[in-house]
Design brief:
Layout lengths: L8 H9 L14 E5 L4 H11 L5 E6 L2 H15 L4 E5 L5 H14 L5 E4 L17 H28 L3 E6 L11 H4 L5 H5 L2 H5 L7 H19 L6 E7 L13 H14 L3 H13 L8 E3 L2 E3 L3 H4 L3 H19 L1 H10 L3
Helix pairs in contact: 2-3, 2-11, 4-5, 5-9, 5-14, 9-13, 13-14
């Protein structure tokens, strides 16, 4: 068996506590940036960095109008940037995702960089009104839905302005620690439904690993979408790990596990600003990152499960199922697939 390329636990800890790479700066004059989950934490810090690069617009995509408006004001106050805009999207609601995409179509403007940052980690089973487990819907299904609905705008922008757009999915180092279990893989065509099933998630404390599984799925999707796009398509799709970060993401974790995570945060976590530097690198750094996994502002190997053995087959099965699920939600998915994707 080939030697594993994924980092050891000691090396991951060393990367976590070591000096973090600096933020890179480029000229974004005239460009439009959209960050999902932009009102707090890493998403907001990412907007602050972008604001120093003179973009034409920064769209702060948030679930809460009140918190979003506060974030737009903070961005202006803390950076002097006055072209921030609040757009509402709730990834726990497919209709909200569709309205968000329609708003882009009606706006008619450009979209150069999309950062899919929004995520949740409730630590317990919660069903959305759409009938999916909430972590899976927010972190993976709706994130992929939004990305595909906005893909035509990313491509149109690149063609109209003779540039290359960026689509950045936020993954995690935690994707190294999980796989798609064989009993979920056995339900080919229903892997996502299995991963959303409350009874399945109750077995072997799988709910505790659900966040990590969704981050694995984000890596799969970035790789699968890249494989479906023409190699010459003017959009770079990648997946970035922010590192273990002080964040409101884990605010709902309770009990002994929640207490342990809080202790680890104090000992090991980097700041949201430091983590946001990795997003910036994925969004404006080297263009030879198509379909790749990024950590600490450089390309890193994805997990052994992703790149070896059954991983590529599972990736394809999940891709097909994802496209089937999303196509049922909105006819624009099939239109995008027929025009821009290979199958």
């Amino acid at each position: 068996m080939p030697h594993s390329q994924q980092p050891s636990i000691p090396n991951r800890l060393k990367d976590q506590v070591g000096k973090q790479p600096p933020v890179i700066k480029v000229d974004l004059t005239g460009k439009t940036i959209c960050v999902l989950g932009a009102n707090t934490g890493i998403g907001f810090q990412t907007c602050k960095h972008f604001a120093t690069m003179n973009p034409g617009r920064i769209i702060l995509a948030c679930r809460s109008e009140a918190k979003g408006r506060e974030a737009v004001q903070r961005l202006s106050t803390e950076t002097g940037y006055t072209k921030g805009e609040l757009w509402i999207i709730d990834l726990a609601n497919f209709e909200s995702v569709k309205r968000f995409a329609t708003q882009f179509e009606q706006d008619g403007g450009r979209l150069d960089i999309l950062i899919c940052n929004a995520a949740i980690e409730p630590g317990k089973y919660v069903s959305t009104q759409d009938g999916w487990e909430s972590t899976l819907q927010v972190n993976y299904i709706s994130t992929s839905f939004a990305a595909l609905l906005l893909l035509p705008t990313l491509l149109r922008t690149a063609n109209d302005y003779r540039t290359v757009s960026r689509l950045v999915f936020v993954s995690s180092e935690l994707h190294y620690d999980v796989i798609i279990e064989e009993d979920a893989r056995a339900n080919r065509g229903s892997i996502l439904r299995t991963l959303s099933n409350e009874k399945y998630l109750k077995k072997a404390s799988r709910m505790r690993q659900q966040y990590s599984v969704t981050k694995l799925l984000n890596v799969f999707f970035a790789r699968a979408l890249t494989a479906q796009l023409s190699p010459s398509a003017p959009v770079v799709v990648n997946a970035v790990a922010p590192g273990f970060t002080v964040s409101e993401l884990r605010r709902d974790l309770a009990g002994a596990f929640g207490a342990m995570v809080k202790v680890l945060e104090k000992l090991l976590a980097i700041s949201a600003e430091e983590a946001s530097r990795r997003y910036i690198w994925a969004a404006v750094g080297p263009a030879d990152t198509r379909g790749l996994y990024i950590n600490r502002c450089e390309v890193k190997p994805a997990s052994d499960f992703v790149i070896r053995g059954d991983g590529p087959k599972v990736q394809q099965d999940v891709w097909v199922e994802t496209m089937t699920v999303l196509a049922r939600l909105d006819p624009r998915i099939n239109a995008t697939a027929e025009r821009y994707l290979s199958s």
